[in-house]
Amino acid sequence: MMNTGPASNMSVESSQDEYVLSLGDLFGVIWKRLWVIALAALLSMGAAVGYSLGQTPIYESSIKILVGQEQRSDAPSQLGSDVQGLQQLTLTVAEAVGTRPVAAAVIERRDLGVTPEEFLENLSVEQVSSTQFIQVSYRDPDPERAQQIADTIGEVFSDQVSEVSPSANAITATLWERAVPPESPASPNTPLNALLALVLGLMLGVGLAFLMEYLDDSWRSPEEVEQISGVPTFGIIPEFEVPKGKKG
């Protein structure tokens, strides 16, 4: 007969406190609840793909503007300092591209019917690192219109720079590379969204698997009983069915 006195109870509680899952146990939990992990991953990925397909595709077209400065013929040239100075100047010029005067002029020329604020929300401007080039990108649901607006931005900005800097050492902004119609949308990025959702779904599924294992307090084998309780198993009662009596 098993001793169930206080000393035995303390032994059981002590063994339960010291019970730690091994690496094999962790993999066992994952394998046992693999269906939960797979279901969470599939549902998450399906939701992300469905959401992406339901969004309006947005296309992005870009141009490159070359910033320069006209030099007087009688002025000595110092190539190193000139290039560094122009690179610093390019930062200032890049800030001027994304302003209301440029937006208003492009809207008027293309008859877009949007406010300058709405226009600037779809515009992105950045200096190509350590160069005199500025990359200007415009986003629109229509790929051809995105290309046309991007080109118009370069033309309008070049004209405006010429108007405000007509001196002998004038700053120039040349539309160096025109836009091309984008072949694929910039957003939504369905493959990327699906991949991120798959990773998040797997993480969620693993968390659910361990939560279900934690809430499941049933013992499924003699070894598990001994490991958790710290008490050896002396015998196992097999499962059997009582035969039904014959009807008279």
Tell me what you see in this structure.
With 248 residues, this protein is an alpha+beta fold. It folds into 2 domains: 22-53 and 190-229, no CATH class; 59-177, EIF_2_alpha (Alpha-Beta Plaits, 2-Layer Sandwich). Helix content is 54%, strand content 12%. The chain has 9 helices and 4 strands. The chain has a 4-stranded antiparallel beta sheet with strand order 2-3-1-4. Helix 3 packs antiparallel against helix 8 and helix 5 packs across helix 7 (143-164). The radius of gyration is 35 Å and the shape is elongated. The protein starts with 5 loop residues before the first helix and ends in a 19-residue tail after the last helix.
Strands, helices and their partners?
Layout: H1 6-18, H2 23-32, H3 34-53, E1 59-69, H4 79-97, H5 100-110, H6 116-121, E2 123-127, E3 133-140, H7 143-164, E4 171-177, H8 190-215, H9 222-229
Antiparallel strand pairs: 1-3, 1-4, 2-3
Q: Approximately what portion of the residues adopt beta-strand conformation?
A: 5-15%
Which series of helices and strands comes N to C?
Answer: HHHEHHHEEHEHH
| Integer count of domains | 2
Query: Reading side by side through the largest sheet, how are the strands ordered?
Result: 2-3-1-4
CATH architecture of the largest domain: 2-Layer Sandwich
Q: Based on helices, strands and strand pairing, what is the structural class?
A: alpha+beta
Strand count, sense and barrel status of the largest sheet are: 4 strands, antiparallel
Mean pLDDT: 80
Residue share in helix: 40-55%
User: Rg from C-alpha positions?
Assistant: 35 Å
